[in-house]
Amino acid sequence: MKRVLWVLSLTLLLGNSVWGFDNHRKGFIVGGGFGFGSTSFKEKIASPLGSSETDWTNEFAFMTEVKVGYAPTDQLEIFYSDKGSWFDYFGSIALNGLGTASLNYYLKPEGPTFYLGGGLGFSTFTLPFENNSDLELGFGFYVGGGYEFTRHFAVQLDFMFGMPKEKNGGFEYTFTGFTPRVILVGTAF
Questions:
Q1: Are 79 and 70 in contact (CB under 8 A)?
Q2: Has residue 28 got a pLDDT over 50?
Q3: Residue 20 falls in which region: left (phi positive, over 0), alpha (psi -120 to 50) or beta
Q4: Cβ(31)–Cβ(187) below 8 Å
Q5: Domain count, the chain
Q6: Cα–Cα distance for residue pair 28/30, rounded to 1 Å
């Protein structure tokens, strides 16, 4: 985790000089962010004999985000987004992730400005620091918006939803997660 934060920090601090960005949103973009939120989830196990479902559980979570893409104009970004929600799952660290094809639309070509965004893709659930942990995959999406308060930096509120599934030995396990997130996002452009 420290290594990821180190790479994100260097990318944001050195991005303009290393890659020659021109301070216009139009063109190549790369960014990342961190924040906090709550992961709400329920689990369902189904077999040919029936199914069982838990109640919704809420856990405080730390949020991460990485984005890479292109802005065809100063108001529209098209990018790949990798969002993560890191939380306690019965004594282990769990990651509920979302990888999406995403769009952000800024209301003005230059900040400060509000923007709206969303994306469709795949959702994941795993226990990344446990041995023999499976990666569950399924459909996911997010919607949200933010406020770019100064060039390159914004506060963003979004809502992730995903349903990763795993089939094993006649059983189907479904993790349904809903995650409201508040994050600080930095973008080099």
A1: yes
A2: yes
A3: left
A4: yes
A5: 1
A6: 7
State the pTM of this model. 0.82
What contacts 58, CB < 8 A, 6 or more positions away?
38, 39, 40
| Max Cα-Cα span within the chain | 61
pLDDT of residue 48: 87
For residue 42, which amino acid is it?
K
Q: What is the pLDDT of residue 13?
A: 52
Question: Is the four-CA dihedral 20, 23, 24, 29 of positive or negative sign?
Answer: positive
- Is residue 122 in a domain? yes
Tokens of 36: 């906090």
CATH number of the structural domain spanning residue 144: 2.40.160.20
The owner of tokens 């990763």 is: 164
Q: Give domain status of residue 149, yes or no.
A: yes
φ and ψ at residue 20, rounded to 5 degrees: 70, 30
Q: Evaluate whether residue 17 is within a structural domain.
A: no
